[in-house]
Design goal:
275 residues, mainly alpha, MetI-like fold, globular
């Protein structure tokens, strides 16, 4: 009884989290196992027959293997965006933390504004059209970098504050140039926060629905989230195929999160612990 009294809030939190996260996933899995007729009932019941393999084959081959094209596009988008995001955010965070100028306050205000102000869709589309980047994958890569850069900068800056300046000065005395100081001395020390940033941003960008919908029209440019439209229409929805599609595009981010869960927590708290 003493154990329950002491940890009742923790136990309740775990149970609520399990219901919130596991029940929807179980519903997705059960619906993906069903045939079309039973899946259309949208009830939480065990399938009368298992149709998972048939559903997967139909989902993958629909619209000339559109799901495979979408996985390729999403992979290119995620890897390119996260790679550039890590480099740019780490460099900006390093400069902001190490070099104090009269412009720092304005720069920090703009970074916070990037976190708080919602994106303007129509002006962004007009800008992309003017630059010839609308409906182009590399145009969306720049959009993803711009939208996620403020959070990444704040993350790196907080971590860099825990790294002694003596390391920079020692490298400079040894003849290292500024780029050498950053890439050969500072960047390797940023590994914990870099892993955190990579995992968080990868899952976010891979699962992004609104940005590809607005800025990347066209079936040849489809990302995994946009393939959900393949099985929905105004008058009919194939729920067994829809939930099979959801299951397939949920598995990669879920695996990444499960494998790197400890690194995410360690990276998010490293700056606070060291500070």
């Amino acid at each position: 009884m003493s154990f329950l009294r002491r940890y009742w809030l923790t136990i309740v939190s775990i149970l609520v989290s399990a219901v919130v996260f596991l029940v929807p996933f179980a519903f997705i899995l059960l619906t993906a196992l069903k045939g079309k007729q039973q899946a259309n009932l949208l009830d939480f019941s065990w399938p009368q027959s298992i149709y998972l393999w048939e559903n997967i084959v139909e989902v993958v081959t629909t619209r000339n293997w559109m799901l495979l094209t979408a996985f390729i596009n999403s992979t290119i988008l995620t890897v390119s965006s996260v790679t550039l995001l890590v480099i740019f955010a780490a460099m900006v965070g390093f400069v902001l933390q190490r070099r104090k100028t009269r412009w720092n306050g304005m720069i920090e205000f703009l970074i916070l504004a990037g976190l708080m102000i919602p994106p303007a869709i129509v002006p962004t589309i007009v800008l992309l059209q003017g630059l010839g980047l609308f409906a182009k994958l590399h145009g969306l890569i720049l959009i993803e970098i711009a939208y996620h850069l403020p959070f990444s900068i704040l993350l790196y800056r907080a971590f860099i504050a825990t790294i002694p300046r003596d390391l920079d000065e020692a490298a400079i005395i040894d003849g290292a140039r500024p780029m050498d100081v950053f890439f050969r001395v500072i960047m390797p020390l940023l590994w914990p926060v870099t892993v955190t940033n990579i995992v968080v941003q990868s899952v976010t960008i891979f699962n992004d629905f609104t940005n590809p919908l607005y800025y990347l029209p066209g079936n040849q440019n489809a990302t995994v989230q946009l393939t959900l439209y393949n099985f929905q229409s105004q008058f009919n929805t194939s729920y067994n195929l829809l939930f099979t599609n959801i299951l397939l595009i949920t598995i990669p981010p879920l695996i990444v999160f499960l494998f790197f869960n400890r690194q995410i927590v360690a990276g998010m708290t490293a700056g606070a612990v060291k500070g």
